[in-house]
Amino acid sequence: MKTLVKNGKAYIDGKFTSVNILIEDDKIIKIAPKFTAEADQTIDAKGCHIFPGFVDLHAHLRDPGQTYKEDIISGTRSAAKGGFTTVCTMPNTEPVIDNIAAVEYVQRRAKDLGSCKVHVIGAITKKLEGAEISEMATMKNGGIVAVSDDGKCVQNARLMLSCMKYASNFNIPVIIHPEDYNMAGKGQIHGGRVASQLGFSGIPALAEEIIIARDIMLAENSKCQLHVAHISSAKALKLVKEAKDDGLPVTCEVTPHHLVLNEDACLTFDTNTKMKPPLRAEKDRQALVTALREGLIDCVATDHAPHADFEKEREFDHAPFGIIGFETAFPVLYTELVLKDQLSLERLVEVMSLAPAKLLHLGDKSLAEGNAADLVIVDLKAKTEVLPETTLSKSKNSPWMGKTLQSSIKHTICGGRITWEA
Amino acid sequence: MDTTPQFLGRNVFDLDDYSAEEILYILEAAKGMKEINLREYKKIPTLRGKTICTLFVENSTRTRMSFELAASRLSADVVSFQASVSALQKGESLQDTVYTLDAMGIDLYCIRHSSPGSPQLVHKYSGKPVINGGDGRHAHPTQALLDIFSIWEKLGSLDGLKVTIVGDILNSRVVRSNLIGMKKLGAQVTVCGPKTLMPGSMEEIYGCRVEYDLKTALSDADVVMGLRMQLERQTEGLFPSLEEYSKHYVLSKDTIQWAKHDALIMHPGPMNRGIEILPEIADGTQSIIVEQVANGVAIRMALMFLILGGKA
Predict the structure, then answer these.
(1) Which of A310, B3, B125, B251 could make a disulfide contact with B277, Cβ separation 3.0–4.6 Å?
(2) A171 and chain B: CB distance < 8 Å anywhere?
(3) Are residues A317 and B116, on separate chains, in Cβ contact within 8 Å?
(4) What is the residue-averaged pLDDT of chain A?
(5) Å between B237 CA and nearest CA of chain A
(6) ipTM of the complex
(7) What kind of architecture, by CATH, is found in domain A2-49+372-421?
C-alpha cells in the first residue's frame, strides 16, 4: 500500500520545505521535491503544512472503568482528529494501571481498536494510594514508558525518595502531578484574586511549588529522571530552571489551557474552567509562554481529562476537575500564541511532536525516509468550529466549546494509515 | 424617554449588576414596603397569583423566613424547598431539582447554596429570575441592600461615609456584597480582621482599605459592622482561640470610642455576644442591629415587587 502526499510544506530539520512524501505501508520511503510516483492513493496537501504527528505525554483515556467518559476507541479517535499519532495514557483508571495485566489490557485494546499509537504510563504506587511501590520494573518490561500517580501525589517524602530510587534503578522516568494536599485544601480555583472575589477556597501555587522543590531534591539524591506534569506557576518555572542549570535530568510540560487562559476565566462559573492545577494569574501565564518559547518548558501536553455532562453540569464546588484537550490543542495554540506572535510555528510544532517523543525516549518521530509514517496535514488558513456534535471525544467538557479557532487538521496519518480526514 | 430603572425579570446575583441609581431606586421602594410592615394588616395584593420558591440548599432559618414573609406580604404563593428534607439529599442534581420545580410553575426563585455561582445555575436551568440569598462565601446581595438601606435611612446618604467592617472577612459573603454596593454609593470601606481571615487582593478588587489593627481601622468611622466569628475557624488553624480573637477584635465600649462618637453599630447576625461584640454595644443606643432585621423584609419585598412587576 502506497500513499503519496504531494504539494505540502513539510517540517524537516527545523524548517518548512515544499516536498512530496511517499509512504509505503507504515514507513516514509521517500521525501523529495516535486517527484511523482505510483501510489494507491494520493493526498493533495496544496496550501497545507505537514508536521510530524503530534505526541501527547499526558492523557486520560478512562479505560478501563470509566468508559462512560471515554474509552480507548473514542479517545484515540479524538486524538487522531487533533493530529496526534502518539498518546501516553495515565494510570488513574478503575482499576489502576499498576500491574502488568492492566498494562497489557490497554496495549491490546489500543493495538486492536485504536486510531493512534498508545503508550502506557504505569502507577508509581499501588492503587495510587501513596503507600507501596508498584511493580514498575515488571511493567517496564511490558512496555510502560514512565510511571506517574497523576491525579494523586505521593505525600510521603521518604516513600517518594524510595520510589524514585527504584525507578532510576530500572531507567523509568517519573512524572509528577505536584500537589501538596494540605496546602491545596478544599481549593476549587487558583488561590489568587479571583478566588478572593468569588469566595472560593483557593489552591495556592505553593501547593505545586513545594512538591516540585521537594521532588527536584529527591531527583538529585536518587539520580532519577523527573518530569513535571502540567507546570503552571512562575515560581515553579524558577525551580525547574535552577534544576536544569544544575544539570539535573528534570523536564516539564505545559498544557494549552495554562498557556492561554488565566484565573479570570473562572469569573463565569463555567465548570470547564475548573482543573488541576488551576488556571493561575496572568503573570504566571505570561511566564509559561516565555518559558515555552525560550526552551525552559520542554513540551506541550494536553492533560485530556474527559468528564460527562452530568458531572460537569453541577455546582462549581461539586464538579470534577479537568477538561478535554486533544481536538483543540493545536488550533488553540496556533490561534492564541502563533498568530499573536507569542510563539513561532516551528517551536509549536517542535513542542507538540519531536520534543515530547524525545523526552520519554519514544524514538525519532521526525519526517525522514525510513521513519514511521506518522504525520499530520494542517490547513492554517481554514478554521475549526468546536461543537459538541463534531467532537469525537465522548465528553464535551471544553472551555472552547462553541468557539471558532484558526487552522484545521485536514489529515492525520499514523503508521501509514489515515486515521483522520476532515 | 422613560429613564426609570427597569427591574422586570432581572436576576439579583450580586450588586455589581446594579448601578448606584438602581440601588437608590430599590431603597426608595423598600421605604414604601417598610411602611406596610408597620400596619396592623401587613399585606398588599400586588403579587397575587405569582409563585415564589425559596430554594435553600444550605440551611438558614432567618433568611428563609425573611424571604417567605416578604413574599406573603405581597400575596404571592410561597413554596419552600429545603435540602435537608428533599431529594437533593438522595443525590438528585440541582439541575433535576430545578427542572422539577419549574414544571410546577415557579415565577421567582430565592436561593441559598454553599457553592458560589449556584444562583446563576438556577437561572440557567429555569429561565426565571433568581434572587441570591447567599452563595457560599461569594455574595449576599439582599443582606448588603438591607445594610445599605439601614444606613441610608439613618444618615440620608452613604456618600463620603467611612464604614468599617470587622471580623472574619475571608468567610463572609456579606462583606463582599457590601463592598460592591457601598462603594457604588460613595462610601469608603475599611475591612479589618486577623491576617489569616483576610482574603488577598482586597484593595485591588474592591478599592477598600485593609487594616489588621482594630484601633486604626475604627478611627473616624461613621459606621461599624461586626461579623460573626465562628468557632470552626479555630479548628481550621486560622486563629488560636475565641478569647484571643476577642481580645484584639471585639466591639466594646472601650474599642468603639475609637470611632466617631455617634457611629452606627451593625451586625448581620446571628451574633456571638461576648466574642465579636459585647451586649453593651449590641444593645446600646448606637446599635441598629434589630432594625436591620426588619429592613431585611422590606428590601426583599421591594426586590420581589420590582422583579415580578407588581402593581403599585
Answers:
(1) B251
(2) no
(3) yes
(4) 98
(5) 12
(6) 0.93
(7) Roll (2.30)
